[in-house]
Amino acid sequence: MTQTVTYQRETKSAPFQGKTIVLENLTPVLSPKVRDKRKKEIERCLFEVFSKYGDRRC
Fold first, then answer.
1. What is the overall mean pLDDT for the chain?
2. 2, 30, 33, 47 — which has fewest CB within 10 A?
């Protein structure tokens, strides 16, 4: 079963090298339960990355 995802659109115009370009950001509109699940998954992945590489010094 496939769910239809809707998106919130944010559009901005910005000057760049003498021309105007349009920047468009699409953010998925999720239910609170799905949003929390996705947030926890991202946090888990970030924790794994920082646990592995976070102690390195330049």
1. 89
2. 2
